[in-house]
């Protein structure tokens, strides 16, 4: 009798486990995430989603530890787009081509599908995307008699023009020797995401085609030229403040009138509402004279553990959470730019705004993903150190050569 009782408990536990899906997720606020989870559970009676919300600062390490253990959980996990190649190369992601038709994949921006792929296979489903541009404070421009930039893709400014505007609008109002208004503030001061387009506008490549070599790419003449321009903003012309390493602080500079321009992401359309006094406009992401228009893109994706024992349920959840209706609700709750064009069409009252239309067009025509490499985490970390040192005054050429050597050593592990 006791054996039968224990067997019954075991079978019950197995059944309950089979209906529970473990999801490792970015630590967004619960009140934003849980309505979507509860809706999925409502649509699938008997299924429980064990969602673990991990703070951003701990997320990537947590994912690494969990996946490297070789277990089948988490069944589903959030993926930063550029890390797709790294997880796929190590066998952590389930290949998805057999489960998503060409027609289904057409629901996302092509650049998002590229970011979710590695060596010709589809591994992570786009959840959000992004873009960036040049925000400007209309009141500061008008007060100091500087013509407003045009808010049109047909009038994209050059970086030289931006530098001249920044020089005119870097102002020491109290004559204490330090600017009270800076010409420009950079939202992600050391992040390749926001800085790569400068080099790419000049035609530079940021990594070898196989994703395993940095020397000759981030050390190329064009890349160094772009990095030198960046160096001048902080160290020669002194039109941008050093040490603003937090995007919220950069946004505060702009929102409180301490900076005339902000090079930043699309989310600022909403986040700048925190500063109701500011009147701001948006100009397209600048280019170098004679260069190509390039904008950054990419954001969160969703992947399935290659070792999950609940593949069917995992697929059902992933298709739900990245589907049109769920993404509509997610945008309304969180404001992450959707990776699905049909969501923009479904919310015309929001996305017909001229600023959103500019970003949407950039996503369709000028967006370039970050490079596909199995060592992206190491690559980005080393480059961030280089960009940070450059903005503090390190010689760009030397900083990039040193970074390239370090990156090549790290990436040699994958050859």
What does this protein look like?
The protein is an alpha/beta fold and 415 residues long. The chain folds into two domains: 2-126 and 300-335, Periplasmic binding protein-like II (D-Maltodextrin-Binding Protein, domain 2, 3-Layer(aba) Sandwich); 132-295 and 373-414, D-Maltodextrin-Binding Protein, domain 2 (3-Layer(aba) Sandwich), CATH 3.40.190. The chain has 19 helices and 13 strands. It has helices spanning 2-18, 30-43, 56-68, 84-89, 102-105, 110-115, 138-143, 159-168, 192-201, 221-235, 247-255, 268-271, 311-321, 324-334, 341-346, 348-351, 354-365, 376-391, 396-411; strands spanning 20-26, 48-54, 76-80, 117-118, 121-122, 125-126, 132-137, 185-186, 261-265, 280-283, 295-296, 300-304, 367-368. The longest helix has 17 residues, at 2-18. It is globular. The N and C termini lie far apart (59 Å).
Architecture per CATH nomenclature, i.e. the level-2 architecture of the largest domain? 3-Layer(aba) Sandwich
Q: What is the CA-based Rg, rounded?
A: 23 Å
> Count of helices?
19
How would you describe the shape?
Answer: globular
How many domains would you count in the coordinates?
Answer: 2
**Can you list the strand order of the major beta sheet?**
2-1-3-12-6
Q: How large is the share of residues in beta strands?
A: 5-15%
Strand tally? 13
Average pLDDT number: 95
Q: How helix-rich are the residues, as a percent range?
A: 40-55%
At the fourth CATH level, what is the homologous superfamily of the largest domain? Answer: Periplasmic binding protein-like II
- Helix/sheet category: alpha/beta
Low-confidence sequence ranges:
4-17
CATH class placement of the largest domain: Alpha Beta
CATH topology of the largest domain: D-Maltodextrin-Binding Protein, domain 2
Profile the largest sheet: 5 strands, mixed
N-end to C-end Cα span? 59 Å
């Amino acid at each position: 009798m006791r054996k039968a009782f224990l067997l019954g408990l075991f079978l019950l536990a197995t059944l309950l486990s089979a209906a529970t899906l473990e999801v490792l997720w970015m630590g967004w606020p619960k009140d934003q995430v849980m309505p979507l989870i509860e809706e999925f559970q409502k649509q699938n009676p008997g299924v429980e989603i064990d969602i673990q919300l991990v703070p951003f600062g701990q997320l990537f390490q947590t994912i690494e530890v969990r996946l490297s253990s070789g277990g089948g959980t988490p069944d589903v996990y959030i993926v930063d787009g550029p890390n797709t190649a790294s997880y796929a190369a190590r066998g952590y992601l389930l290949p998805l081509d057999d489960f998503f038709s060409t027609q289904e994949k057409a629901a996302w921006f092509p650049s998002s599908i590229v970011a979710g792929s590695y060596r010709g296979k589809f591994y992570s489903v786009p959840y959000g995307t992004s873009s960036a541009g040049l925000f400007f404070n209309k009141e500061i421009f008008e007060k100091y008699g500087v013509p407003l930039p045009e808010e049109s893709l047909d009038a994209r400014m050059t970086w030289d023009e931006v530098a001249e505007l920044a020089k005119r609008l870097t102002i020491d109002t109290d004559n204490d020797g330090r600017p009270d208004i800076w010409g420009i503030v950079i939202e992600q001061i050391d992040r390749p995401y926001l800085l790569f387009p400068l080099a790419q506008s000049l035609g530079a490549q940021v990594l070898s085609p196989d994703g395993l070599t940095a020397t000759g790419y981030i050390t190329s003449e064009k890349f160094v030229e772009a990095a030198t321009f960046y160096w001048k903003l902080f160290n020669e012309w002194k039109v941008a403040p050093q040490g603003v390493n937090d995007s919220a602080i950069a946004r505060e500079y702009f929102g409180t009138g301490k900076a005339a321009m902000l090079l930043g992401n699309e989310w600022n359309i909403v986040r700048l509402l925190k500063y109701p006094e500011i009147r701001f406009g948006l100009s397209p992401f600048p280019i170098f004279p004679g260069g190509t228009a390039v904008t950054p893109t990419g954001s969160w994706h969703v992947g399935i553990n290659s070792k999950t024992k609940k593949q069917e349920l995992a697929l059902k959840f992933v298709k739900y959470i990245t589907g049109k209706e769920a993404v509509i609700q997610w945008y309304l709750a969180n404001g992450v730019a959707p990776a699905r064009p049909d969501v923009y069409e479904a919310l015309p009252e929001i996305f017909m705004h001229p600023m959103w239309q500019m970003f949407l067009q950039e996503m369709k025509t000028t967006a370039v993903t970050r490079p596909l490499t199995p060592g992206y985490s190491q690559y980005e970390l080393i480059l961030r150190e280089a960009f940070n040192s450059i903005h503090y005054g390190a010689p760009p050429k030397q900083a990039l050569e040193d970074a390239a050597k370090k990156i090549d050593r790290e990436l040699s592990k994958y050859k």
